[in-house]
Amino acid sequence: MAKAAADGAEKAGAQTRLRRVPELAPQEAIEANEDWA
To answer: Among 15, 16, 29, 32, which has the minimal tally of Cβ within 10 Å of its Cβ?
Structure first.
């Protein structure tokens, strides 16, 4: 999803940079939410 947003922004003339960051939500919260799994 981030790559698609960056591609669109670059096509509009913006400079972009993708960064990887650690997940901040607790693992229990991720596992409990089907939309996040």
So the answer is: 15
pLDDT confidence tier of residue 33, bands split at 50, 70 and 90:
very high
Cβ neighbours, 10 Å, residue 6: 15
Indicate the pTM of the whole model. 0.56
Judge whether residue 37 has pLDDT over 90.
no
Cα gap 13→16, rounded to integer Å? 9
Tokens linked to 14: 């913006």
Residue 26 token pair: 């607790």
Using a 10 angstrom Cβ sphere, with 0-12 exposed, 13-18 middle and 19 or more buried, the burial of residue 28 is exposed
